[in-house]
Write the structure tokens for this entry.
Amino acid sequence: MNSLFSVSNCGMYFHRFCYIISVSIICMLFFVLNPSICIGQNNLIEGDSLNTSFQKNKNTNKKLYTNIINNSKNTINILCDSKMQGRGYVDKGEQIAANYIAKQFEKIGLLKYKDTYFQSFNLKSVNIFPKKVQLKSRNKTFQGGKEYLVSSFSNSGKGKVGILYLDSAFFQNDSAQIAFKKVSLKKTAVMYSDKWTKKIQTENPSFLEKIQEAKAIFVRTKKLIGVPSPVAYSKPYFEVLDSIFPVYPALGLIDLEDLKVTKKANKIKTLSFKVKSKLVVSQPSQNVIGYIKGTKNTKKVIVFSAHYDHLGKMGKDVYFAGANDNAAGVAMLLELAKYYSENPPEYSVAFMAFGSEEIGILGSMFYTQHPLFPLKNIEFLLNLDLIGTGEQGATVVNATIHEKEFEILKKINTENKYLKNIKSRGAAANSDHYFFHKNRVPSFFIYLNGGSQAYHDVDDKPQNLSLFGYQNLYQLLIEFVNQLPVK
């Protein structure tokens, strides 16, 4: 799921730095305002994870649903394997995943628009970390992904730095902040808690300029959350995990004389770091799109969509598997494609796997700017993202906008007891439905609630998914489409 905005039911999605939100907004503006996006080129938990209510449901087409879980587990494992490189921009991870999906489309027998499943485009740029990343103290080498992350907008840098830790007393004292502006930071790194980030941005933006004089910046947080960036604009900038990272002694209220004495006495703790970033210009990306032709009204189209990209890698050793976000959605997309290839409806059905979602929902934005068939022909779009859980039911974005369709969905769910509940939510720019919605295409973004809380981190792995509501959501989607009043 795109990191520009977060899913409201999961508090952990909102627990991110304000600087990350700012970077994501920069990502969006960077591409929306710049027309340089151009045309171009198996370890899931075993056991029964099905909702028990599904066992009680009468199903007239049981043979079409029996292998959904096993098939999807296999797909999720493949997409999350280290060979996919986190489905990002390091070592062509996104392209590897796109090629895999295209091969699956071919096996299923989906038709192509024009002569290929690929709709290719270029990103103006993306900042990546393909080389080794390292952070260590005198006594310990810290574990990337688990104990720290390099923020995606960081420039390269290396060295051994003293840590100037700014505590609550500093941020609550104006005179200390004034004195801080006179402190030399050339051989020093600044460290502070992320709880002060919002205050800094809204009340003291000059502080952000000052800390860029430092050799490195460390922000303490309770949860590590990654997000890609199209730009590099900061000195090496680390997120460090509060519960694991050592607490450095605070200097309290800044006194220049005391600071000089402390430095001379070698009492400032030190860290060594090494970061090598690379700003890739004209980064290739692609959407993967196929369809099933309707038996009667071929111009009318139902669309299922899911993004396949994820955060990729940080250095040589750390990659983000992205099981819930969004290997599970892609697996569902493939299973739905299989179903409709065996049961073609009167109208056409398109399957769209979008790239570059995590860097600002850019793949779907590109599609709406260069549609392969008229957008007005889309009767309804169902976007699937974060569907690997389901213990607490589902949430539907745009439910308050398309109330009649939402009532159909709820009615089917109530009658069949597929999911615990289905919550209504308004419009939100948090996944690939958004630009379709902005272009007046009726659309829902459906995600499941509960279960694993891993999000944009190294713990979003296949073995952490319950797939609790997965098969029931699959059946719910099919019955919903069957009951849609296609005009």
